[in-house]
Amino acid sequence: MSKKQDVMEKLDKVYDPELDQPLTDLDFIDDITIEGSDVEVKFRLPTYWCSPNFAYIMAEDIKEYVSEIDWVKEVRVILDDHCASDEINHGVAQGKQFSQSFEGQTTGDLNELRKTFRIKAFYSRQDRLVRHLLNDGFSKEELVRLTLQELEGITLSEEGIHLRDKYLQKKKELNHPNTCINAITDPEGNAITIDDLSDYLLGIKTTRLSMEFNGHYCRGLLEARYHLEKTN
After folding, report:
1. Chain CA centroid to CA 11, Å
2. CA distances for 28 relative to 14, 53, 144, 162, angstroms
3. Which residues contact 26 (CB under 8 A, 6 or more apart)?
4. Between the chain's N and C termini, which has fewer beta carbons within 10 Å?
5. Does 174 score more than 80 pLDDT?
6. How many Cα atoms sit within 13 Å of 195 on the Cβ side?
């Protein structure tokens, strides 16, 4: 594997927090320069005014993941063409928190925002998996009784396996207690009752559709801004 492939493999793990899609799929990665053990990653966003806190999360994650490569000594992250490029590029390079980079403009850090986006991604992935299972013949009663162990053991199509893995990855990030044995839970790890299931499914579907709409909208803006070939 080449050094650039090493970097791309790590960048595949960096997600737009609002869209729950990899930056590599969204075409946000503009350029990668490698000189010895130093890596520079340039990225771009759909608009000049995309939320600075979202952009900061992405820049931090690029630096963190690429720094995991054993031959990498230095990672420089450059956000181009953004209203807060200077603050973000300098702050991430210096390892500053968001509130330090935007001193006087905000007092909060990004942990709560990261948690909010983690939950939205959990809902979206859960909705895709649940609908796949229902289409596969699961009843709603079976769904609410399904345990994590059973979910991990059932035979699924290739698409089903992909949806299950993506959902379980996000569920793991929420650090549910060991006593949580149900596969389909709310973000706190509480089981969903059959009486509450319909309303719950409507809620997570709304979240998924909103994220998918924003994803299409952002792709269109990026294509128009940088004259990129239209994607399907």
Report:
1. 12
2. 11, 16, 38, 23
3. 16, 19, 215, 218, 219, 222
4. C
5. yes
6. 0
φ, ψ dihedrals at 228, nearest 5°: -90, 160
- Whether the per-residue pLDDT at 107 is higher than 80: the answer is no
Question: Has residue 5 got a pLDDT over 80?
Answer: yes
> Which DSSP category does 191 fall into?
B
Q: What is the distance between the alpha carbons of residues 27 and 186, in angstroms, rounded to a whole number?
A: 32
pLDDT(109) > 90: no
Task: Report residue 156 as tokens.
Answer: 């699924």
Residue 229 scores a pLDDT above 90: no
The count of residues in the chain is: 232
Give residue 232's pLDDT: 60
- Only one residue has tokens 């909010």, namely 116
User: If DSSP codes are grouped into helix, strand and coil, which group holds residue 220?
Assistant: helix
Q: What is the Cα Rg of the chain in Å?
A: 20
